[in-house]
Model the fold of this input.
Amino acid sequence: MAAQRRNLIQSHQSWTDDLPLCQMCGVGTAPNCVYGPDGKGTESHPNEDGHLRFRGEDGCFLYGVFNGYDGSRVASFASQCLTAELLLGQLNSSHTDNDVRRILTQAFNVVEKSYFETIDDALAEKAHLSNFLVPHNENVSFHQLSSQNQKVQERLKELEQEVSGGATAVVALILNNKLYIANVGTNRALLCKSSSDGQNQVLQIGRPHSTDNEDELQRLAALGVDSARVRQAGQIGGQSSTRRLGDYRVKFNYNEIDLLSAAKTMPVIAEPEIHGSQSLDSVTGFLLLMSEGLINALESAHGPEQANQEIVAMVAAELAQQTTLEAVAQSVVDRVKRLHHDVYVSGRQRATYCSRHEDMTLLIRTLNYLLADGALTPTQGGRIYPVSVPYSNSQSTSKTSVTLSLVMPSQSTLTNGTNTASTLEEGTPTPGSQSPTATLQSTNTQTQSSSSSSGDGSLFRQRGSQAAQPDETGRVPPYVDFSQFYRLWGTDHSDGQSTQGGLGPQ
Done:
């Protein structure tokens, strides 16, 4: 059986070829990058991320983002096996919430067990060959070893590449129009909901299983692990995650790792933390699944404080401009990549955090949300989105956010699969009237903390339907007001440096 599974994964055959892809989502990706002194980037390894987006039966949808490391084998295997364990008849509309959570947990357990079955033979051969190695001698080079020892070492290196590596995963399941999130590791899920009263709430569903997660540290401490040392180290086996798929070194050999040697049982696990269900009835907005690489790139460039709000604002802006979800997701990833690069080449203090980034993956699933009409222009009225322009001077790592109101094309809302006119509520403003300003709330479902955006910038805001008219030259007045940005920039850089000839209209 192990040999069959191993041959299957090596032949790159998918167990889910016949499942239809979901057309209500888009995926954007970017490879890892290391910047040189000249600002040019190079890839340090092939892309290791993975994702899935399938439509099953009985109104069942499955999405996932997998952040692989030390190779893409685990991420690729997990995306195929998990789909096979969930969408080939295991789930149906009669299942209760407890049933769904149980099936999700079982699916992750099967993925973990099945993956290790695929590398059983390689691990056995590796253990066998290790018995033939001569004791390590630092004074003896590889070329001075006997021919037999050289071959053993070369084969051991090949086997290590075959069996090493792991992945973290965040998976979203929609069944009976209810959302379930299963998380293993350090990826992230965000749900943006636009409510009827104009409030637009951003929910981070769960917390990353990392070495600074208090619940995870308590779990490790209960197993006998020194949680203070884990927090201080910041990594376990080269990764910050305390839960992961694969990675035989921390699963089978944890007692040989100093940081984990006191553990009574396996400390790094693949058991998912499941959140839900959450009803999606009457919800308008979108769901985001993000790999750790995307999150870290944005937080490295701008700091972690407003990362969720920033990525949601980017998605909202692109949804108002792009005509396909694939283009939306890719545009957002490209924007994060540019932000990260620009901070590095700027030479500012945060540039030290931006010398490299890992693979980035973003999956967007819309919820009763209609894409922009490509025929519209930004001057034809519609929503206004903020663009956060963070910057810091050379003396500070703090982030100053300036909210610029950008008028985006108006959209229709999608109700029960049909297009209807775009409205707010019963009090939809007439042309020329001022609509109320919505606020952006950020909520972590683990801590239940929330905050609202301040100022005149909001995630979703409507203006009167009067569009700017071209003048006699065919041009329209500017619809982006940078005055606040220029003022704050000048204040932040008023230490003797003149902004004349630089920022601002001359």
